Task: inverse folding
């Protein structure tokens, strides 16, 4: 158990809809990063938040957006869902961003 | 950018030793990490090499050669519970120091 919790664990959406995924970071961690993991692939970096500011972004379009709250919890929002957005979305917390990542169990999104 | 290569599958028997190799290409390098992920589970941190050489943590060891852009994870005294996917990952030079993961190696441990 890493202390990182994500919700919901599974969800099904249709193309064009919007989704919000939530993450509570491990106590004492001030940095949250989000990764997308397609089936059979490694996690791909979406973006990272440090003290409520986005401080890094991977190769994902603007319809992927996020927030970090004062308690360091975080949200990932995806607008205009596409079929290729079907994946496991992983949240990871760390202290300062350069250390070991502690991952949650993920939210599995299916887009029909 | 970064790219990593690792074998897609490895099979070994209980009690054996297995080595999972990882080669990488990166424009900047801050170290090589290894993560384990069981089916449907969260990736969990195993090891980190920031400098050349061997790091040992119990049954797991990891090695790095920065001059060869190469590393490996060594698992000794394999147990059935070691069946999982193993990912190598390099940390970028960007402001977020984000990890770039390889595609993973599926390790199957047979009785």
Result:
């Amino acid at each position: 158990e890493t202390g990182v919790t994500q919700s919901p664990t599974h969800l099904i959406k249709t193309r064009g809809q919007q989704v919000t995924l939530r993450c509570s970071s491990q106590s004492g961690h001030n940095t949250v990063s989000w990764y997308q993991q397609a089936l059979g692939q490694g996690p791909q970096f979406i973006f990272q938040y440090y003290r409520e500011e986005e401080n890094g972004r991977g190769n994902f379009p603007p319809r992927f957006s996020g927030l970090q709250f004062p308690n360091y919890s975080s949200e990932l929002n995806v607008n205009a869902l596409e079929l290729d957005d079907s994946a496991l979305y992983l949240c990871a917390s760390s202290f300062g961003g350069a250390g070991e990542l502690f991952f949650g169990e993920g939210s599995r999104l299916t887009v029909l | 950018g970064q790219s990593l290569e690792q074998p897609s599958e490895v099979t070994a028997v209980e009690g054996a030793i297995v080595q999972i190799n990882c080669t990488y290409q990166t424009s900047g390098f801050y170290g090589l990490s290894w993560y384990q992920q069981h089916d449907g589970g969260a990736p969990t941190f195993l090891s980190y090499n920031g400098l050349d050489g061997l790091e040992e943590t119990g049954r797991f060891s990891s090695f790095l050669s920065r001059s060869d852009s190469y590393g490996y994870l060594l698992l000794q005294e394999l147990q059935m519970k070691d069946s999982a996917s193993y990912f190598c990952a390099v940390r970028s030079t960007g402001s977020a120091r984000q990890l770039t993961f390889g595609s993973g190696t599926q390790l199957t441990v047979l009785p």
Observations:
- Chain B touches chain A at residues 30, 33, 35, 40-45, 48, 87, 89, 91, 94-104 (CB under 8 Å).
- The CA atoms of residues 5 and 23 of chain B lie 5 Å apart.
- The two ends of chain B are 40 Å apart (CA to CA).
- The mean pLDDT of chain B is 93.
